[in-house]
Design brief:
Elements: H1 2-16, H2 19-34, E1 40-42, H3 54-62, E2 66-73, E3 78-84, E4 90-92, E5 98-100, E6 112-116, E7 119-120, E8 126-127, H4 133-140, E9 145-149, E10 170-173, E11 176-179
Parallel strand pairs: 1-2, 1-6, 6-9, 9-10
Antiparallel strand pairs: 2-3, 4-5, 7-8, 10-11
Helix pairs in contact: 2-3
């Protein structure tokens, strides 16, 4: 069931992925971050047809934000974040990911993280690629603000979640920012 749902949601994301939608998504993310009190954000380099947030990384950095990118470790099913800046050396990781070179885990510095997803529901539940990397990370750092990003076509009525699945505080789509009831007080 989850495999077919993930396939369907990937198709929906491909349908929604356009330069117009990406620009709108980045605009809303930039505006949200700019007006947030959080100045240390975890973002991602795009993989597998995700919206490209690299221009957002550069724009936020230029405004004085500290930007961090994740590195995944399949052997331990963990991820952690490293400091990024426009001139840092990047290296390819597993699953086609890219992260700053170096070994230092700086996840503890994060105030917010922009989380990739395949799908989401109206309660702040998300479905990712199935590795549980972000769920484990968010469980370890429960006070970090969690902002998912995707397109409106990736919405599902209700996702069947497991006890280990971590909910989002908000979501950004090409239409704007959505906040979720259970974690609204974190915004």
């Amino acid at each position: 069931m989850l495999v077919s749902l993930r396939s369907y949601l990937k198709e929906q994301r491909v349908k929604a992925l356009s330069s117009e939608n990406e620009v709108a998504l980045r605009h809303f993310l930039f505006d949200f971050c700019l007006h947030s009190q959080r100045k240390k954000w975890g973002l991602v380099w795009p993989i597998r047809g995700e919206a490209d947030l690299r221009p957002l990384c550069y724009a936020l950095f230029e405004k004085g934000f500290e930007i961090f990118l994740p590195q995944t470790f399949p052997e331990t099913s963990q991820l952690f974040f490293k400091t990024w800046h426009p001139h840092c050396k990047m290296e390819e990781g597993p699953f086609g990911t890219w992260h700053p070179q170096g070994e230092r885990d700086e996840s503890y510095k994060l105030e917010g993280v922009i989380v990739p997803l395949l799908g989401y529901d109206s309660q702040g539940n998300r479905i990712g690629y199935g590795g549980g990397f972000y769920d484990r990370f968010l469980a370890k750092y429960p006070k970090i603000f969690r902002l998912g990003y995707g397109f409106t076509l990736q919405h599902s009525e209700a996702l069947d979640c497991q006890v280990h699945d971590q909910r989002l505080d908000g979501l950004c789509t090409e239409k704007g920012i959505i906040t979720f009831p259970a974690r609204n007080d974190k915004i």
